[in-house]
Amino acid sequence: MEKLARKQVQALTPYMSARRIGGSGDIWLNANESPFDNEYKTDFARLNRYSECQPKALIEAYASYAGVEANQTLTSRGADEGIELLIRAFCEPGEDSILYCPPTYGMYAISAETIGVERKVVPLTADWQLDLPTIEANLDTVKLVFVCSPNNPTGNLVNRDDIITLLEMTKDKAIVVMDEAYIDFCPEASTADLLADYPNLAILRTLSKAFALAGLRCGFTLANAPLINVLLKVIAPYPVPVPVADIAIQALSESGLARAKYQVLDLNANRAYLQAGLSMLPGVLVHEGWGNYLLVEFTNGDELFKATWDNGIILRNSPIENCVRISVGNREECEKTLAFIRNQINQSAA
């Protein structure tokens, strides 16, 4: 079967998600999931019928939440499907390219490689911002430029002025895809308002993080109607199961939005608690984060990661040297994680 696969697929290394990596423990702070297990009810009716391609109530609810029009909103199976739809719709395999800026989310590259689309890489600058001159020099054949803000795994925000410069630079040439999976933790930094001026902007959103619905697999793409209409040509006929739409609509109701806002405030407070506590430890550098996670640099990150892993605290190893990404959990999880790391560092220093 391996030999029958396309050459690109044979050579492909799959994205190592937190669940694929696994682990065994009581504290799971490796996948940027919410610690809140909210309760929803659905009657599981109408399962003998296909769902709408774009459920009207769901589209209108999310458009209202995001501050855009319904015709600027498309829902999909997580933001990951949004990435694939954009590449499939706009990139000709063997001809066009995507451009992305590591360290960042790995699925941009894997989705392109799976489809046979070339990947151009322009690393972020030393302060994890866009290298605009190098991006401009590499735009030939590029149809999509992926920018993640807050960026995963670094946690920082990309400068808004640089995003606008990039949008101007790519006008009539390429689409800038802003991955805003974590924007609910800092909504003031959203680029949704720029849709009014830039037809070459697409924004990825999800209910997985702030809405505590990672298991639901419900995401959104925001863009102007002409771009959305292109995506509708390539999306699956029934991308959103009936129970998924039902639960997502509940999450986006007035009471659901109030709950999400409260939980975001709680997680932001826990992030500040973790950041303050870790920053007091010798040899530890906590990078400022705007999502529900922190990138933390240790004297020996691999050693610290293994120690927590072996003791049932599952964090995420980072491709950045000596760095570990720590999701923000509930207060008890944060306290236990901080205490364990403190003890480890004290023992190492003794």
From TrEMBL:
<dbReference type="InterPro" id="IPR015421">
    <property type="entry name" value="PyrdxlP-dep_Trfase_major"/>
</dbReference>
<dbReference type="InterPro" id="IPR015424">
    <property type="entry name" value="PyrdxlP-dep_Trfase"/>
</dbReference>
<protein>
    <recommendedName>
        <fullName>Histidinol-phosphate aminotransferase</fullName>
        <ecNumber>2.6.1.9</ecNumber>
    </recommendedName>
</protein>
<comment type="pathway">
    <text>Amino-acid biosynthesis; L-histidine biosynthesis; L-histidine from 5-phospho-alpha-D-ribose 1-diphosphate: step 7/9.</text>
</comment>
<dbReference type="GO" id="GO:0000105">
    <property type="term" value="P:L-histidine biosynthetic process"/>
</dbReference>
<dbReference type="InterPro" id="IPR001917">
    <property type="entry name" value="Aminotrans_II_pyridoxalP_BS"/>
</dbReference>
<keyword id="KW-0808">Transferase</keyword>
<keyword id="KW-0028">Amino-acid biosynthesis</keyword>
<feature type="domain" description="Aminotransferase class I/classII large">
    <location>
        <begin position="28"/>
        <end position="339"/>
    </location>
</feature>
<keyword id="KW-0663">Pyridoxal phosphate</keyword>
<comment type="similarity">
    <text>Belongs to the class-II pyridoxal-phosphate-dependent aminotransferase family. Histidinol-phosphate aminotransferase subfamily.</text>
</comment>
<dbReference type="GO" id="GO:0030170">
    <property type="term" value="F:pyridoxal phosphate binding"/>
</dbReference>
<dbReference type="GO" id="GO:0004400">
    <property type="term" value="F:histidinol-phosphate transaminase activity"/>
</dbReference>
<dbReference type="InterPro" id="IPR004839">
    <property type="entry name" value="Aminotransferase_I/II_large"/>
</dbReference>
<feature type="modified residue" description="N6-(pyridoxal phosphate)lysine">
    <location>
        <position position="209"/>
    </location>
</feature>
<dbReference type="InterPro" id="IPR015422">
    <property type="entry name" value="PyrdxlP-dep_Trfase_small"/>
</dbReference>
<dbReference type="InterPro" id="IPR005861">
    <property type="entry name" value="HisP_aminotrans"/>
</dbReference>
<dbReference type="Pfam" id="PF00155">
    <property type="entry name" value="Aminotran_1_2"/>
</dbReference>
<comment type="subunit">
    <text>Homodimer.</text>
</comment>
<keyword id="KW-0368">Histidine biosynthesis</keyword>
<keyword id="KW-0032">Aminotransferase</keyword>
